[in-house]
Structures are given as structure tokens and as C-alpha cells.
Specification:
Blueprint lengths: L3 E2 L11 H13 L6 H17 L1 H12 L3 H27 L2 E3 L9 E8 L2 E5 L7 H12 L3 E5 L5 H15 L3 E4 L3 H9 L4 E5 L2 H13 L4 E4 L5 E4 L5 H13 L11 E5 L3 H16 L15 H8 L6 E4 L3 E2 L4 E2 L2 E4 L16 E7 L2 H9 L6 E5 L3 H10 L4 E4 L20 E2 L4 H7 L1 E8 L4
Parallel strand pairs: 4-5, 4-7, 5-6, 7-8, 9-10, 9-16, 10-15, 14-15, 16-17
Antiparallel strand pairs: 1-6, 2-3, 3-19, 8-18, 11-14, 12-13
Bound molecules: nicotinamide-adenine-dinucleotide.
Length: about 450
């Protein structure tokens, strides 16, 4: 029996996956999700869900990931509300047909680009920001006039259960939530959707894309990878270390755009290591295990994967852990070799390797020899370095001076390139992702 939560505004009703998809297709077919007023109503309902059920979600996120209430508000609930409010404020303007120039020989005629809803979209979310990454794509899907199936992660059962119980209660007939693991996702992927929006790892991304190909369904793949930080001589290393530590150890390192590793250029490594130790202390005190804002590793499997990486390099700070509590201290490793296990796959946990490279050329070569990262960060005072990184590397985003920041700016596209994914969302980019840009021509019959 597929665990699928309901279709009515009252008690959840068990429903199998094909029935749910058929229901959503029928709801889309009535045309009711197309008018702007309906889109705004549904966004208002989503807003009500987030504001009325804040504490329920905060409790669930604490149970799943040890997130503090403030942290859950900032990076999950409040984040999604910002995305939603920005969308509500602009959606009418974004949906307005855009006039296109009509070449002289075809005049008189009008040409416009219209953003048409796609139909039924599937949103598959991961566990690291389990609320934000399920509901913030949904904001775009609803604003673009679609119905949606949301598949939250099985690794965060409390948050997923809260979404499954509450989302249909607020949004009624135009959404369905499918809980479950691989069998349920596999069953979902057999259905025909009009768009699949997947956030997670590249291995499953390939499975999603192969399944989508059978129905010629377009996909957005929000993947991860190793996001480097380049630190150049001349950068203020105290500020640099504070900002790297904040971005890295947020959510215990389980953030897709967290700095994965540092490339310390020239002789910066020794001083940077000292400043990183000070920064970790400033953020989490003598005992990060007791710090209010320090999270826990999502599962024992991920905990074991991470602790197996602790032997690489020299431990500058951290390294302590407690499996029963899924606690791993904020850890900085120095003198790490590029061939070390910690440098092979995305770390996705609170371990920060520092590698030394002789110069910027070597840093750029290092980055370009690997998959295109989801984000590239650099701390430098050199305009030439900024220009070279912008022109000579490719990444989903490029931030100078502050990791992770771009994620919270709804006017910026968010997405990867190459191995870090395809497609983009947030704000107006979500509307384009969940719409078809239709060319409409109107030539008078005279
Ligand atoms: P996960 O294990 O929760 O998987 C994500 C989804 O895929 C889940 O809903 C799960 O049920 C489904 N799934 C898992 N195995 C499957 C299979 N064999 N077939 C079909 N579906 C399957 O999350 P994860 O992948 O561990 O998430 C972490 C990854 O996500 C990291 O690589 C991280 O960088 C990336 N990520 C990217 C972004 C982004 O916005 N680009 C955001 C967060 C996380």
C-alpha cells in the first residue's frame, strides 16, 4: 500500500499513485488552476500553512535534524515565506504576455510570449532542508498554474509526515503528497508528468532523467557536488575564516551549497587554519555538542560515511563524535592530499579539508579538472582574480566574499551546471521552469 496522503480538506484519504496523478490531471483539465486569482488563492493557502503550523514544522525539524527553532525558521519556514511573498508581489507582472517585435514583412500582426502552465508536476525533495526544498519549488509550480505531487524524503520522517498531513489540508484537490522511499519514487516515476523537479544526488538524478525520457518529460535537476573556496594572500583571513565556517557548519555541513573544501593559495594555509579554529570557537563555544545552533547528522549511514573520512590529513579542530547522538564536531583537516578519500565525493557534513595550491593558475586548474561545482567561492582583494575566476571557470554560482548568500536572493537564478545539475529556479526563474513559453501570433484577417 502506497503511503499517500489525502485529497480532501478533512481526513487524509488513502489513494494509490496512478489515482492521485489522474485526480491532479483532471483538476488541471478543468482549467481552475489557470486564473491568476486561483494561483494567488493557493499561494495564500500555502502561506497560511507555513504561518499557522510553524511550530509543528519546527518540532519535526528538530526531531529529524536537531535544528533549533530559530534555525528552522531562518532556513526553512522563513526562507520559503520570502520566496512566496516575492512571488505574490510580482507574479502578475511575470505572467503578463511579453510583446515581441514583428518583422516588417509580416506587419500588421501582434506577437507575444505567453507563459502557459504545464499540467501536473512532480517535486522530489531531499532530506537536508526537507521543508524548504519541498515547498519552495511548489511556490513556483503553483504560481505557474500547475497541480503538483510532492515527494518528501524518507530520511526525515517527522517533517515528511507533517507535510503529508498538512499540505493537502490547506491546498485540497490540487496537490498530493506521496510519502515513502525508493519503491514509491520508482512507482511515481512510471507515471507521466509534465515536469519533474528533482533535488538530491547525481546518482538518483540519472535515474530520474532516464525515467523522464520515457515520457519526454522535461526535468530540472538540482544536484550537489564539491563547492570549492579559493583563499588568496591579501584577503582578511579572520573575516574569511568566519564566513567560511558559518557557511560550512550551518546544518552540520549538510547544505548543498556549503563550502566543500578550501584551496589556500600560496602561504595562506597556516594562518587560515588558526583563524578557522577561532571562528569555530566563536560560533559554537567550547563544546559544540551543547551549542543551540549546531545540528546533527541525518542518519547513522551518513554518520558512518563521514567519520570514515576523519583519518585524512591533520585534524586542526574537531574530529570528536558520538554515534548515538549522530553528533560530529565541526572539523577542519589540514595538509589534505587531492587523492585523499575526503576529496573524492561531496562531503555533505561538517568536515572542511584545507589544501594548499601554489598560485591561482593551480587553483583554476584544480577546479576545472573536476565536475562543475554548484557554487564557487573566493576570498580575494584582487579584481584580476575575480575576473579570471569568472571567465576561466564554470559553476552554478560564483560568490566573492560570502558563501551561500546567493541562495537567499530571489532575483538570482538558483541551479547547477554540468555535474551539479540542470535548470534553475527561485522567483521569476521558477515561473519559467514550470511554464511553457508559448509563441502567440495574431495577424488580422485583412
Ligand atoms: P535523499 O536520499 O533524500 O534523496 C532524494 C530523493 O530521491 C528522496 O525523495 C528519495 O526518496 C529519492 N530516491 C532515493 N533513492 C532513489 C532511487 N534509487 N530511485 C528513485 N528515487 C530515489 O537525498 P540525497 O540525494 O542524499 O540529498 C543530498 C544531495 O542533494 C547532495 O548531493 C546535495 O548536494 C544535493 N542537494 C542539492 C540541492 C540543490 O538545490 N542543488 C539542495 C539540497 C541538496
Amino acid at each position: 500500500m502506497t503511503a499517500l496522503s489525502g485529497s480532501s480538506a478533512h481526513a487524509p484519504v488513502a489513494e494509490d499513485i496512478p489515482t492521485a496523478v489522474a485526480r491532479l490531471r483532471a483538476a488541471f483539465g478543468t482549467g481552475r488552476t489557470r486564473p491568476l486569482a486561483d494561483r494567488l488563492d493557493r499561494l495564500a493557502a500555502l502561506r497560511a500553512l507555513l504561518t499557522e503550523q510553524t511550530e509543528v514544522f519546527q518540532e519535526a525539524l528538530r526531531a529529524d535534524l536537531g535544528k533549533s527553532a530559530a534555525e528552522s525558521y531562518r532556513s526553512e519556514i522563513g526562507f520559503t515565506l520570502n520566496e512566496l511573498d516575492h512571488t505574490v508581489a510580482h507574479v502578475e507582472e511575470w505572467l503578463r504576455p511579453r510583446p515581441a517585435a514583428v518583422p516588417e514583412p509580416f506587419r500588421p500582426a501582434e506577437a507575444t510570449v505567453v507563459r502557459d502552465p504545464l499540467g501536473v508536476v512532480l517535486i522530489i525533495a531531499p532530506w537536508n532542508y526537507p521543508l524548504q526544498l519541498a515547498l519552495s519549488p511548489l511556490v513556483g509550480a503553483l504560481a505557474a498554474g500547475n497541480t503538483a505531487v510532492v515527494k518528501p524524503s524518507e530520511l526525515t520522517p517527522a517533517t515528511s509526515a507533517a507535510i503529508a498531513e498538512l499540505l493537502p489540508r490547506y491546498l485540497g484537490e490540487t496537490v498530493a503528497v506521496v510519502e515513502g522511499a525508493v519503491p514509491e519514487t520508482t512507482a511515481l516515476l512510471e507515471q507521466r508528468f509534465d515536469h519533474i523537479f528533482y533535488t538530491g544526488n547525481g546518482t538518483v538524478g540519472r535515474i530520474v532523467m532516464a525515467a523522464a525520457a520515457r515520457h519526454l518529460t522535461p526535468v530540472t535537476l538540482e544536484l550537489g557536488g564539491k563547492s570549492p573556496v579559493v583563499v588568496e594572500p591579501g584577503a582578511d583571513l579572520a573575516v574569511t575564516a568566519r564566513r567560511i565556517a558559518r557557511g560550512k557548519f550551518l546544518n552540520a555541513g549538510q547544505t548543498c551549497v556549503a563550502p566543500d573544501y578550501v584551496l589556500a593559495v600560496g602561504d595562506t594555509a597556516a594562518e587560515l587554519e588558526k583563524e578557522l579554529v577561532a571562528a569555530v570557537h566563536e560560533l559554537y563555544g567550547d563544546d559544540p555538542a551543547g551549542a543551540e545552533h549546531y545540528g546533527r547528522i541525518v542518519s547513522e549511514r551518513h554518520f558512518d560515511r563521514l567519520t570514515a573520512l576523519l583519518g585524512d590529513g591533520r585534524t586542526v579542530t574537531g574530529g570528536t563524535h558520538d554515534r548515538a547522538a549522530r553528533y560530529l564536531a565541526p572539523t577542519v583537516l589540514a595538509d589534505v592530499e587531492p587523492t585523499a578519500p575526503v576529496m573524492q565525493d561531496e562531503i555533505f557534513g561538517p568536515i572542511l579539508p584545507v589544501l594548499t595550491v601554489p598560485d591561482l593558475d593551480a587553483a583554476i586548474a584544480f577546479i576545472n579538472e573536476r565536475d562543475k561545482p554548484l557554487a564557487l567561492y573566493a576570498f580575494t582583494e584582487s579584481a584580476q582574480t575575480k575576473r579570471r575566476l569568472a571567465e576561466e571557470t564554470s559553476s552554478g554560482a560564483l560568490n566573492f566574499g560570502l558563501p551561500v548568500l546567493h541562495l537567499a536572493m530571489p532575483e538570482l537564478p538558483f541551479g547547477g551546471v554540468g555535474g551539479s545539475g540542470m535548470g534553475r529556479y527561485h522567483g521569476e526563474y521558477s515561473i519559467d521552469t514550470f511554464s511553457h513559453l508559448k509563441a502567440v501570433v495574431d495577424k488580422p484577417l485583412v
